[in-house]
Design goal:
Blueprint (H helix, E strand, L loop, with lengths): L7 H11 L10 H6 L6 H12 L7 H7 L7 H4 L7 H14 L5 H13 L17 E5 H7 L1 H13 L5 E5 L5 H6 L2 H18 L3 E4 L2 H15 L8 E4 H10 L14 E3 L13 H10 L22 H4 L1 H17 L4 E4 L2 H10 L6 E4 H7 L3
Parallel strand pairs: 1-2, 1-3, 3-4, 5-6, 6-7
Helix pairs in contact: 1-3, 1-6, 8-9, 9-18, 11-12, 13-14, 16-17
The chain binds iron/sulfur cluster (2 copies).
The site of one iron/sulfur cluster (SF4) has 14 residues, from helix 2, helix 3, helix 5 and helix 6.
Length: 370
C-alpha cells in the first residue's frame, strides 16, 4: 500500500528509511548526470535528516540541492518497500516555500499557475463545455507546446469510434505546483479539472501521457488528499487505441521508412507500469522496421528535463535530455518517437546535437490512418 505523505511525520519516516540506504542509488537519473553523491536518493535523505537534527539549515546552497531532484519517481519504482521519497521531497519543499526560502523562480511559477493555470502562456484555460460519455484531458503542454498533437489524438479517437469532450485545455494537471512545493495551488488546479470533468458527465477520462495518468491516479490521492471519482474510469489514449488496433477496429498504412528508430518512454513511465507495450504495438503498425530499444526504458525509464528542473535547474534539466538522446544514439537510433509534448519539446530542441530526428507518436499515427 502506498504510504500517505501529507503529514510531516510520514515524510520524516521516509527520510529516515532512505538516508543510509543505497539500494536505488544506481538508478537515480540526477545522480547519473551530475555524478554528485549529494544528488542521489540517500544524499537527499541525509540532507533532510541533518536539517531535522539541527546539523544543517536551509540556505541558498541546501535549498538548491532540494530543488535539484527531478521528482521522476525512479527511486520509488525500484524500492522494495515502496518508500515515497519523491513525495517526501515535495513535502519538504512545501516547508521551504512556507519559510520564503525557495528559489525565486518557484514563486514566479506558482503565480503563473495561480493566475493562468499554466507556466507557458498568459492565457486562462479554455472551457470547451459539452457533455459526453468520454472526456479527453488536454492539459497545458499539449495545448501550448504541441497543439497539432491534440488534433491528431482527436482524429485517432474519432477513427476508433469515440468523439471525446475536451476538458482542461491549457490547465496544468497540478504536478508542477506539487513538485515545486505548492500543494494548495496543485489542489485548486485539480479541483477545477475535476469540476469540469463532472460537468461533462463523462464516465471515462482519457489522458494523453503517463504523466497525466500518474497525476490523476496517484498524485491526487497521495499528495493532495483528493480521491479520484469512483464512477469515472481513467485510461491512457494510447492504451485505448492499442486495444482497438488489436480488435481490428483501427487500421494504419505502414510508412515506407527504414530509418533505425526507437520509442522513448515518456517521463513518469516508471510510475505507470501497465503501459509499456501499447505505444510499441501502435508504433510497429506504422513503422514496421525492427526498432531499437534504449537502455533506460520501460520500468527503468529516465526522465528528460521537462519537469520543474526545466526552470529551477535548467543545467541539470538539459543534461537529463542529453542523456536520453545519448542513450538513443548509442543504440543506433536515428529517429525517436514519443508522445509527451513536454518531452518532445526538450528532445527536439537538442536532437540535432546527436544527429537524431524526433517525431510525435500521435501525429505519426494520425498521418497513417487507413
Ligand atoms: S527509496 Fe527505497 S531504495 Fe531508495 S533510498 Fe529510499 S529506502 Fe532505499
Ligand atoms: S525522484 Fe528521481 S531524481 Fe529524485 S531522488 Fe528519486 S530517482 Fe533521484
Amino acid at each position: 500500500m502506498p504510504i500517505e505523505i501529507g503529514k510531516l511525520q510520514d515524510a520524516n519516516q521516509t527520510i529516515d528509511n532512505c538516508r543510509y540506504c543505497l539500494m536505488c542509488r544506481h538508478v537515480c537519473p540526477v545522480g547519473h548526470v551530475t555524478a554528485l553523491e549529494t544528488l542521489t536518493p540517500h544524499g537527499w535523505g541525509l540532507l533532510i535528516a541533518s536539517q531535522r537534527r539541527g546539523l544543517a539549515e536551509w540556505n541558498e546552497q541546501t535549498v538548491e540541492v532540494m530543488y535539484s531532484c527531478a521528482d521522476c519517481g525512479t527511486c520509488r519504482a525500484h524500492c522494495v518497500t515502496d518508500q515515497p521519497l519523491p513525495e517526501a521531497i515535495a513535502s519538504v519543499r512545501s516547508e521551504i516555500v512556507a519559510q520564503h526560502l525557495a528559489p525565486s523562480v518557484a514563486y514566479e511559477l506558482n503565480e503563473r499557475l495561480q493566475k493562468w493555470g499554466n507556466p507557458y502562456q498568459e492565457q486562462t484555460p479554455e472551457t470547451a463545455g459539452g457533455q459526453g460519455e468520454v472526456a479527453l484531458f488536454v492539459g497545458d503542454a499539449a495545448r501550448y507546446l504541441r497543439p497539432a498533437m491534440v488534433k491528431a489524438a482527436f482524429d485517432l479517437l474519432r477513427a476508433a469510434g469515440v468523439e471525446p469532450v475536451l476538458i482542461g485545455g491549457g490547465r496544468n494537471n497540478g504536478y508542477l505546483a506539487s513538485s515545486l512545493g505548492f500543494p494548495e495551488t496543485a489542489k485548486s488546479l485539480a479541483e477545477a479539472t475535476l469540476a469540469e470533468l463532472a460537468e461533462s458527465g463523462a464516465s471515462k477520462l482519457l489522458v494523453l501521457t503517463p504523466g497525466d495518468f500518474f497525476a490523476f491516479n496517484q498524485l491526487y490521492p497521495e499528495r493532495l488528499g483528493i480521491a479520484w471519482p469512483q464512477n469515472v474510469a481513467l485510461e491512457e489514449v494510447l492504451v485505448f487505441l492499442a486495444g482497438k488496433l488489436e480488435a481490428g477496429a483501427l487500421r494504419f498504412n505502414p510508412r515506407g521508412d527504414d530509418t533505425p528508430h526507437a520509442y522513448v518512454d515518456p517521463t513518469h513511465s516508471v510510475r505507470v507500469t501497465t503501459r509499456y507495450d501499447a505505444p510499441r504495438r501502435l508504433l510497429a503498425a506504422v513503422l514496421p522496421g525492427q526498432p531499437v530499444e534504449l537502455y533506460w526504458r520501460r520500468e527503468r525509464t529516465h526522465p528528460t528535463g521537462s519537469g520543474a528542473l526545466r526552470w529551477t535547474n535548467p543545467h541539470i534539466g538539459r543534461h537529463l535530455t542529453y542523456a536520453r538522446l545519448g542513450d538513443a544514439a548509442e543504440v543506433g537510433a536515428r529517429l525517436l518517437v514519443t508522445e509527451d509534448p513536454a518531452d518532445l519539446a526538450q528532445l527536439a530542441e537538442h536532437a540535432a546535437l546527436f544527429n537524431l530526428r524526433v517525431e510525435g507518436l500521435y501525429e505519426l499515427l494520425a498521418g497513417q490512418l487507413a
